[in-house]
Amino acid sequence: MKGTKSIRAVFAREFKSYFDSPVAYVFLVAFLVLTGFLTFGVALFYERRQADLGPFFFWHPWVYLLLVPAATMGLWADERRAGTAELLLTLPLTARQILLGKFLAAWAFLGLALALTFPVPATAGWLGSPDWGAVACGYAGSFLLAGAAAAIGLFASTLSRSAVVSFVVSLAAVFALLLVGFQPVVKALADWGVPSGLVDAVAGCSLLSHFEALQRGVLDFADVGYYVGVMVLALAAADYAVSPRRKGGAIVLAALAAIVVAANVILANLPLRLDLTADRLYSLSDGSKAVLAKLDGEVTVKCYVSASAADMPPNLKTYAARVENLLGEYVRASGGKIALEVYDPKPDSDAEEWAQRYGIEPQNPNPFGAPVYCGVVAVCGDAEEVLPMLSPRTEATLEYDLTRLVTRVAWPERPVIGVMSPLPDVLGGEANPMAMQMGQRPNPGWAVFSELKKDYDVRSVPLTAEAIDPDVKTLVVVHPKNPDDKMLYALDQFVLRGGRLVVCVDPMNIADMIASRRNANPMMMQMGGGDGPSSLGKLFEAWGVSFATDKIVADFAASTKLNAGNNTVEDNPAFLTLGEKNMASDDLLVAQVSDVMLPFAGSFAFDGKSANKGLSFEPVISSSKDDSCLVDRGAAQFGMGAMKRELKPDGKAHVLAARLEGTFKTAFPQGPSGTNAVASALKEGTGTVVLFGDADFLADSFCVQTLNTPFGLVVQPLNDNLALFSNVIELFAGRAELIGLRSRGRADRPFAKVRELETKALAKWQAKEQELETALQDTRSRLEAIQNGKGGDARALMSRDQQDELARFRKILADTNRQLKNVRRELTADIDRLGTRLKFLNILMVPLLVAFLGIVHGLVRRSRCRAHR
């Protein structure tokens, strides 16, 4: 108890001493300006439009590197220089109590500096919806990092009576501990042939590597233990430096170091961590746990990772460790139904032979070195499935990929999915022989259907089919242009027999336009080629559904920035980027979906008349009620200029996707002419149909991007389009537990406030811009009329009044053009002004307030000193 009071007394004295001179205020101002500038000026936090504090925390280690040595260099060096160190040691205080009090004061001072950065998370919270769990964890990690750096600074301060020398030693020590975990340095060590085990051990000692998980929102007790261990060791070393004559001090210090290292090794191998992110992004989801609970037999998961390979890229090695940790969670959650085996496929080993036999793809980061492996195999009975190549690029879908791997071997039967479409690229196909001779590869088809083929038996259903095969339980129809009665009747009977139908119709399909121009030929035209809208005609009528093929939904609140030519970018409200507020909150189809792109989509309406009373129509995705309208299909095709006259919000939330289910009645009570309809044809039945007012959202251009990485070809989602479609298929034909897993790792947290400003600005200036455009066109027409009315030398034939009128119109033309440019500039002026104000608030306002308080405090101290003289 007495020792605690002594530590508190030293703490109070030391903490107060920071503010007895301008140094504390200078430090606080420098810290706040530097963090604010790096966050908003270098990392462009505002321009990123994401309420994610990753760019803010990223700079903390490097800011501490520069400023913590300055804040701690005089903790003991100044005492020695002033001759008060010996006096302190003669007081009824131990050296440990003095050092601990000084350390806690320095740490508290750094905590105060960190707390004064509150405008950054406050700004993120005002602009959007940050993950507050991740923010809290990031602050905790930053505070621990500051404590470790402060302890090192205190130790450096005990080594010399010169504060400058202490500063240099502390700076060098902290810099070294940051550098050994910096990825370019780790990669360089591996490239120089340093054994991988040694590289891992060195990187594991870094202040930087232990901060990465904390700033993501994962409180790993191994990371906490590391920082606590650094503080304990640094303080113990400082105690030894202050009292070098203490008997056995070196032995105690060495023993303590061994204990700290052993404790950290043990903690690193224990699954002790808290996932503080809002959606538990780094923990096993309930869906995965549900899959594991339903397993009937044991599944063996074999992880092949070249952990000992010198050529293994550091980022891939780190990712492989993440995979192994996650697989460990599968084992623990499975109750003994998952067995994990980890292999290191060294060159010419049995493990390498098995990896190749299973289909694990070798990767060659070093053309002159041995290949490395990073893949997973799942085995259950005779069933085998493989993830041939794991890449850090696909970390967002890692849990989905692993859970899906388990389901493939646990339930190897593959449901049949039918796909019907006139578009040639949907399912792809073989290249013609001549093209193959020229090196052209077969068309793999759209990525969404390539993904489906991994889990389902995907079959092409011809447009001429008069009936859908009985083993097809789910059918996807993409852009059905000009459907004849035979096709509609086949779909009609499919729904009535209980089939699940996914329909993607489109008023203007970009993929179709591209394919039609590329492959235009008479045969294709007969098959429904040539760009045009799609619908299901008689079926929609029978179901009470209407779909306007000549109208496109425009939504100011969901505008997408597009290249408008001439190095300009415009917000196009017909090219929809929809967020969580546009999704039905209680529908599994859009679980974990918050970012969907629908280019030039149409809308549905439902007539619930008595003939359709057995059907329910539930909107799944809708446009904004206050900011959307319908525009002409032809106008939307030519951009904002052509749409301006029609862009007037109509106060309706237009349905872009819907679920239709219940009792359907046939659209062909007499049977369609020209088909093989028989008397036994179904007249009604229970079924489910999901309707999408766009088909392009499934095309690669609007769904995924294919990346050629050092780890191979990687397909990476651009948004949640792929996840949305996967949800539909998994609900209809797969395992409902997988719904939402694919998009679970995607954390999109846009600046909603900025989006609102953009929407208001666009609506505010739209009318003015249209008025000026009309005046501009009218002025041009009058000018042309005056000039064209006088053949030859027009000016020579004009009267004085006509010349004056011509000059006046030219002036009007110039003024109107200038006003038009000003209007377009004003579209972003409010947003830019907001950004400027927020940057001032976060970079300068709090530092100016701190500086003001420092000046006031200094003046008060000076007046008191004068009063005591």
Q: Give the number of DSSP strands.
A: 23
> What would you report as the Rg, rounded to the nearest angstrom?
34 Å
Sheet/helix structural class: alpha/beta
**Helicity level, as a percent range?**
40-55%
Entry summary:
The chain is α/β, with parallel strands linked by helices and 869 residues long.
Describe the secondary structure blueprint for this structure.
Layout: H1 2-18, H2 23-42, H3 45-48, H4 54-58, H5 60-72, H6 77-82, H7 85-90, H8 95-115, H9 119-127, H10 132-157, H11 163-179, H12 183-191, H13 196-203, H14 209-216, E1 218-220, H15 221-242, H16 249-268, E2 273-275, H17 286-293, E3 299-305, H18 314-333, E4 338-343, H19 350-358, E5 374-380, E6 383-387, H20 398-410, E7 416-420, H21 433-437, H22 447-452, E8 457-460, E9 474-478, H23 485-496, E10 500-504, H24 510-519, H25 522-526, H26 537-543, E11 545-547, E12 551-555, E13 560-565, E14 568-572, E15 575-579, E16 595-599, E17 604-606, E18 615-622, E19 628-632, H27 633-637, H28 640-643, E20 655-665, E21 684-692, E22 704-709, E23 712-717, H29 721-732, H30 752-788, H31 794-797, H32 800-868
Parallel strand pairs: 3-4, 7-8, 7-9, 9-10, 10-21
Antiparallel strand pairs: 1-2, 3-5, 5-6, 11-17, 12-19, 13-14, 15-16, 18-20, 20-21, 22-23
